[in-house]
Amino acid sequence: MKNMKTYSLILFCCLLSISVFAQQSSISQKQKDNLALIERRIVADLRSTTNQVAAKNIDTKVGKLQSEKLRADGSFKNIDYDTKVLIKWNAVEHLANIESFIIAYTNPLCKKYDDKILYDNIIASLDYWNKKDPISPNWYSNEIACPRVIGQILLLLQNANISIPASIKNSLIEKMQRGNMYKKTGANKIDEALICIYRAVLTRNKPLLDSAVEQCFEPVSFTNEEGLQYDYTFLQHGPQLQIAAYGVVFIDDEFKIAAFLRDTQWAIPADKKKMIVHYFNQVFLNTLRAGYSDFSTTGRGVSRKGNLFKKLSNKSGLLHNVELVNPKDKELYLQLVERIDNKKPASYGIKPTHQQFWKGDYTIQVRPGYLFTVRSNSIRTKRTETGNGENVLGRTMGDGATDIQRSGDEYYQIFPLWEYDKIPGVTSRDYNKDIPTTTSWGQPGSTQFVGGVSDSLYGANVYQHNFDGVKANKSYFYFDNEIVCLGAGIYSDAEQPITTTINQCWLRTKAFSSKNGLENTDDHLDFNAKKDNWLWQDSIGYFFPEGGNISVTQDFEKNDWQRINKKYKKADTTSGYIFKAWFNHGKKPQNEHYAYIVVPGVDENEMKDYPISDIDILANNDHLQAVYDTKLKILQAVFYEKGELIYGKNKITVNKACVLMLKPSDTNSLSLSVADPTQLLKNVEIGVNGKKVNCQLPTGNYAGSTVELNINKNE
């Protein structure tokens, strides 16, 4: 039996060698040169962070691995190769250790360069992995994580002309084939295809490279499945917003591959290059403030340490590859790096924009002074996911959650300390203790009337909320210096009190209130607000034009990361002072409401005399919510049903539910923007001071997007 296995292995190696020889002999010299160029670029990317400081760190790491963890058979003492634990399967560390060995062995800056003992360790560890062949209960480790590192290891060895036994090399190449790039979607497809590129370069297999490149760039196309959507959001794990999660994997891999293949016959097509550049420049970067992501775009990764901060550098990694592929926007990327490195303020180079993503149920308002976003869900999308023991408390994170950033790090590392029924912007039950999510990988939304209108500078959006026994009509109106948040039709028969959270972030400054009562840290404040009452903390003001029962706390909190992510230990703790403010709607509210206006970038001394009266809330009830900015002369309204709105001498009528915005275009005309949150209507009739406008609405892949019309006041 043993001889039969040996014979089979020898036969496999012979057939593989013949196949490789045939593939290599069938390609031109130019193609061979391009394959060698691609190999050099991949290896250069793997080595891109190995400077003198990194080399010293690698020497230290390798020395400790050799002296403290490495066994004579090539295994490592701290790794359980037989474990079937899903969350903490650490066998992949074996491959990462080998990769560190190879970088140290092949880098002249390292003390271990060309070290005979280290070479023997590399061969022994490769042989151990090859024979042991650890298998994880998580498909991702078997099909992507491990094959990817194996490919990187073999490319590093091949590029440095370091020989390893052919039987080991060929067997490891075979283990890189456990995935199927044709069956995967979105970011997972790209991962699988990149592994195939590694194999193609290792074996100089042009047909495989042709197929892999095609599959790599195939996700750079609009889809209604997982992947890049028609509104340029990125959805994965079903219709779930993943811009700074799987969306980062998507652009990281796409730009990496495009950089590897640039100026060769396999270069990314021009139309696909345009799409990934747009996604990076106009979507991903707009969700960052000084390098910190909007927490609602990170999926279950919100529960991982350090996940919000995207340390982008133009010297290596994603941004470096973006510059290689798209050098014409170098100035934009330089401004980004200066913001991330704190060489310039968070406002530096930021241009005003407003974006409404009808496929992702997501809204962005960008101004030099702030970033404000809203994450919603509908029957067309899913709530933020829980999975693999991560983000176990984030079940309402997509229920109209608001992210308010000025410096960028207002929420960085705060999440173990959050009270999860008080996520910013969310209306929910106030439980005695946080309730874990019971549905993994994203719970579908339950309402249809979710969406908004945008003219790329201003806009409004609506989220009709119905979850966990709580109903509310929630809307958001965006101007230059103010964001108006309205809620009406709040109903619940639950035993718990119902709240709407204004914010829950780090306490960075002393909090001030028009009611006083917050003189000292740890002070709490409960008050029945009047329309001229306000609250201020960390350069952000909050006004309460309709009053309300408000509570404010600024408590010291301490908790562990395991509370929200089971891969961490109880000893992994964090602590700090938390600013928290919310409306109390009481138990079993019937048609309750709230209104607050967020003013980012204001000094506490400006609050008393702030011209908040420029913002006129025209309606806030369960069938109509509307706001007029008297300075900008912009009207924004959410009609939940057929109806009319009268303000001043103006009258607006609609024959169907919709969201609209009306603003001056010039002295003789008005600009009308309209959207259908249900994404079902073909048209809606708008009346403006008696003038009827029949708005033909977008359908198909663009249903829910904004249509803009011009109304001549003199006709």
Automatic annotation (TrEMBL):
<dbReference type="GO" id="GO:0005975">
    <property type="term" value="P:carbohydrate metabolic process"/>
</dbReference>
<feature type="signal peptide">
    <location>
        <begin position="1"/>
        <end position="22"/>
    </location>
</feature>
<feature type="active site">
    <location>
        <position position="300"/>
    </location>
</feature>
<keyword id="KW-0732">Signal</keyword>
<dbReference type="GO" id="GO:0030246">
    <property type="term" value="F:carbohydrate binding"/>
</dbReference>
<dbReference type="InterPro" id="IPR011071">
    <property type="entry name" value="Lyase_8-like_C"/>
</dbReference>
<dbReference type="GO" id="GO:0005576">
    <property type="term" value="C:extracellular region"/>
</dbReference>
<keyword id="KW-0106">Calcium</keyword>
<feature type="active site">
    <location>
        <position position="237"/>
    </location>
</feature>
<dbReference type="Pfam" id="PF02278">
    <property type="entry name" value="Lyase_8"/>
</dbReference>
<dbReference type="Pfam" id="PF02884">
    <property type="entry name" value="Lyase_8_C"/>
</dbReference>
<feature type="active site">
    <location>
        <position position="246"/>
    </location>
</feature>
<feature type="domain" description="Polysaccharide lyase family 8 C-terminal">
    <location>
        <begin position="617"/>
        <end position="684"/>
    </location>
</feature>
<dbReference type="InterPro" id="IPR038970">
    <property type="entry name" value="Lyase_8"/>
</dbReference>
<dbReference type="InterPro" id="IPR003159">
    <property type="entry name" value="Lyase_8_central_dom"/>
</dbReference>
<dbReference type="Pfam" id="PF08124">
    <property type="entry name" value="Lyase_8_N"/>
</dbReference>
<keyword id="KW-0456">Lyase</keyword>
<feature type="domain" description="Polysaccharide lyase 8 N-terminal alpha-helical">
    <location>
        <begin position="46"/>
        <end position="320"/>
    </location>
</feature>
<dbReference type="InterPro" id="IPR012970">
    <property type="entry name" value="Lyase_8_alpha_N"/>
</dbReference>
<protein>
    <submittedName>
        <fullName>Chondroitinase</fullName>
    </submittedName>
</protein>
<comment type="similarity">
    <text>Belongs to the polysaccharide lyase 8 family.</text>
</comment>
<dbReference type="InterPro" id="IPR011013">
    <property type="entry name" value="Gal_mutarotase_sf_dom"/>
</dbReference>
<dbReference type="InterPro" id="IPR014718">
    <property type="entry name" value="GH-type_carb-bd"/>
</dbReference>
<dbReference type="InterPro" id="IPR004103">
    <property type="entry name" value="Lyase_8_C"/>
</dbReference>
<dbReference type="InterPro" id="IPR008929">
    <property type="entry name" value="Chondroitin_lyas"/>
</dbReference>
<feature type="domain" description="Polysaccharide lyase family 8 central">
    <location>
        <begin position="354"/>
        <end position="603"/>
    </location>
</feature>
<comment type="subunit">
    <text>Monomer.</text>
</comment>
<dbReference type="GO" id="GO:0016837">
    <property type="term" value="F:carbon-oxygen lyase activity, acting on polysaccharides"/>
</dbReference>
